[in-house]
Amino acid sequence: MEHIGFIGLGTMGGPMCANLLAAGYRVTAFDVDTHALDRQVEQGAARASSAADAAARVDVLLTSLPRPDHVEAVMADAGALAALPSGSVWIDLTTNRVELVRALAADAPDGVEVVDCPVTGAVDGARNATLTLFLGGPTDVVARIKPIVDNLGTVISCGGLGTGNVVKLVTNQLWFIHAAALGEGFALGMANGVDIGVLWDAMKESVADSFVARHDAPSVFAGHYDPSFPLDLCLKDLGLIRDLQQGVGTELPLTDAAHLAFAAAGEAYGLDVGEMHVAKRLEDATGLSFRLDGNWTPHWEK
């Protein structure tokens, strides 16, 4: 089996690394958060002393980092890319800027291949290996690394390098539009006399059904609004989506409206709060409450 390196052991990366260990891979791990690294070492990972040390020792390196600038800092500034040995593959699981992934690939040492493979499915998907992964890269390299990432969920091959991130950002584009609309639907129904539980049941059993309605609405009902994915990351992804809009050649008004809604939530509540504060702004504006009694186990605990 390939010797795996894993850099970035946070909310998503930690569970993914643990699943690779459970699948029997030899994993060398690194994170600047020593507690996160300790957790993986306790599960069987070898400890790297730095990002470059992790890269130098493995056949396949995976990175799972919050932002494109973190990827650039790790792979370029910290020397992980230059440390990769010939014949190795770097898989970037980060939701990233397409141009950056391609620029780093162009700077990779001779004999090093690069694929982008951003993921979706939230923390429960990472924990339970039920993520969806969007894989972009050369066909032969994709064939080599697919058995590895198959251990993390369902893999969709998207095309050449960078297309994985394009597809991921399209899925996030629609997710953010749905998330911004959810609170408006609750507000419209409740302001006209319908119970929120009835509204939710109707959404799930009709053309209004969506991942957001089923997966994210409970975080609104519980009142924590899903702190596992903060508004800061929503706005980061919306900025990446806006970059892609430049190539469309026309306006995308629903996408722009979602961006404005999330930006308004960030201004009202700060950037470190949960993503579904985009719905809380409707509660506060209308004086309605979207609380609903129920056993709303946070998805990251499932």
How would you state the average pLDDT, rounded?
Answer: 97
Q: Any idea of the CATH topology of the largest domain?
A: Rossmann fold
What portion of the residues fall into strands of 2 or more residues?
5-15%
Distance between the termini: 30 Å
Total discrete domains: 2
Question: What does this molecule look like?
Answer:
The chain has 302 residues and is of the alpha/beta class. Helix content is 52%, strand content 13%. The protein has 14 helices and nine strands. A six-stranded parallel sheet has the order 3-2-1-4-5-6. Strand 2, helix 2 (34-42) and strand 3 (46-47) form a beta-alpha-beta unit. The longest helix is centred in the middle third of the chain and has 29 residues, at 163-191. The protein is globular. It starts with a strand and ends in a 16-residue tail after the last helix. 45% of the residues are buried.
Keywords:
single chain; 302 residues; alpha/beta; Rossmann fold; N-(1-d-carboxylethyl)-l-norvaline Dehydrogenase, domain 2; 2 domains; six-stranded parallel sheet; three-stranded mixed sheet; 14 helices; 52% helix; 13% strand
What's the short story on this structure?
By secondary structure, this protein is α/β, with parallel strands linked by helices. It is about 50% helix and about 15% strand. The strands form two sheets. A six-stranded parallel β-sheet has the order 3-2-1-4-5-6. Strands 7-8-9 form a three-stranded mixed β-sheet.
